[in-house]
Design a protein that fits this description.
Elements (H helix, E strand, L loop, with lengths): L1 H21 L5 H17 L3 H8 L1 H4 L3 H18 L1 H30 L4
Helix pairs in contact: 1-2, 2-5, 5-6
Length: 116
């Protein structure tokens, strides 16, 4: 059943993003930004973690999970280090993902010789 719920929740998140582009006429960049903010708001209200527990990858794979991760990192570090922790917590949570994207992007460019 977890696969069904993951598919359903992930599909609904994608449906919201598609709705924002097709009906509201947001650009793809604005849609991604809106989805990150949506995930951050849900994370700040403690509504995203129950969604992750319920649907697993259906809630952790879409871009909304990135917004949730930013907020959760800021909250955890803010409790420990105060205002400075809020700022450093955001960087701490995202640094591994951003670093991996840069490293793997570079390695792919070296291996596959992109045309440009």
């Amino acid at each position: 059943m977890i696969f069904f719920w993951a598919f359903l929740v992930g599909g609904v998140i994608c449906l919201i993003g598609q709705f924002l582009m097709d009906v509201v006429k947001l650009t793809p960049a604005n849609t991604v930004s809106a989805m990150v903010v949506f995930g951050a708001v849900l994370g700040g209200l403690d509504l995203y973690q129950p969604l992750i527990k319920f649907s697993g990858a259906g809630a952790t794979v879409p871009i909304t999970s990135f917004g949730n991760a930013l907020v959760q990192g800021a909250i955890v570090e803010g409790r420990v280090h105060g205002l400075t922790g809020v700022i450093t917590g955001i960087f701490e949570v995202t640094s591994a993902g951003v670093s991996a994207a840069i490293i793997f992007g570079f390695l792919a460019a070296v291996v596959f010789r992109p045309r440009g």
